[in-house]
Specification:
Blueprint lengths: L8 E2 L1 E4 L3 H12 L4 E5 L6 H4 L3 E2 L2 E2 L4 E2 L3 H19 L4 E9 L3 H8 L5 H4 L22 E9 L1 H11 L1 E4 L8 E3 L4 E3 L2 E3 L2 E3 L19 E10 L7 E4 L1 E5 L5 E5 L13 H12 L6 E11 L8 E4 L6 E5 L5 H18 L14
Parallel strand pairs: 1-12, 2-3, 2-13, 3-9, 7-15, 13-20
Antiparallel strand pairs: 4-8, 5-6, 7-8, 10-11, 11-12, 14-17, 14-18, 15-16, 16-17, 19-20
Helix pairs in contact: 1-8, 3-6, 3-8
The protein binds flavin-adenine dinucleotide.
Length: 353
Amino acid sequence: VTAIHADRLWDTIIVGQGLAGTTLAWHLQAAGQQVLVLDADTPVTSSKIAAGLITPITGRRLALSWGFETFLPVAQAFYQDIETLTGQRFFHTRTAIRLLTSEAEQQHWSRRDCLAEYQAHLLTPQPNALVEPDFADVRFGGFAMESAQLDVRAYLAASRACLAVATVTVDWPGAVAFYDDHLVIHGYRGLRLISCEGHAASRNPYFSEVPFRAAKGDILTVRFQQPLPAQTVHRGVWLAPTAAPDVFYVGSTFDWDTLDCVPTPVARSEMEQKLKAFCRTPYTVIDHQAAVRPIIKASKPVLGMHPRLHHLGYFNGLGSKGALLAPWFAAAFTAFLVNGTALPDSANLRAYM
Ligand SMILES: Cc1cc2nc3c(=O)[nH]c(=O)nc-3n(C[C@H](O)[C@H](O)[C@H](O)COP(=O)(O)OP(=O)(O)OC[C@H]3O[C@@H](n4cnc5c(N)ncnc54)[C@H](O)[C@@H]3O)c2cc1C
């Protein structure tokens, strides 16, 4: 762990220790930089409540996840490296079961499952029984895919113990002073400052032009009457394993209107209805949380340096896929900052500022 001396001049100061800030900090440090992370240490954040699912075929339209083949190998190699560095485990490969809900969905799937790009993600052979018949209704069949899950909380906690992190809530803009060749923020001196604040960046006055289309998500934690296999099950809602074999996350909702972290009975009942529509195993709800996903208009990550304040940068827009996207885009941002490699056009902050 790097000591946090008050007189140190940091190469990069990052604001926010969610998936974006943590992953960028590891990449910059690996490139030889001295990195300090300032984080409010808020108990509920999008990263802290996320299930960390990395799923190749998702949603009602059974769509292929954007860039999955490119982003997954980078994510897997990165998280496994950090597991080795920290001596903790948080990246798990998982079988993901998708149960179909109707004949129409079966037909839709029959037109897709023969395509090579879909076949590449399916388990071969497919299991005889997708799930135990007394666990869930499998009337319309489904399929089993290879997927992964990041235990995001464990990744953040292990990283916090190893990176230089100070508990500070940055109060923009008053807390920052920019000079020709460095900046000072809450008394810390750095050559560069990068906002990785998630949805809170929508209140950052330096980046007010970035168009958010953020969505609140509620998530339940449920305890089943008996242990279940450590696989994810998707059917309207998803069930995602936790460290305890009888405890699963159930998620999640999308609410574009009320952007707060207050769990609501309406969201809980929506998720429970979808769960009860197929799950026959009794459960009790033991926790319910909500946070706001940092989705930016085009639903793609956004990164780069401020066009006028040359020491100030931005890494955001991980949306609902932070576990998959953070490592590839943190690597791209690091290559830009350290070697001057061009940023991917589709993710460049300059599109908005
Ligand atoms: C219910 C739910 C389920 C989800 N499930 C999944 C999933 O299964 N798989 C997946 O990949 N993604 C999932 N996501 C999305 C995922 O959470 C996001 O993609 C990701 O966590 C965003 O990370 P971030 O670092 O950009 O933002 P955040 O997680 O919001 O982190 C920002 C950090 O910055 C800190 N901060 C902000 N402002 C300041 C400030 N001014 N001063 C100091 N600190 C500050 C915050 O306290 C926080 O620690 C889910 C999200 C929700 C809400």
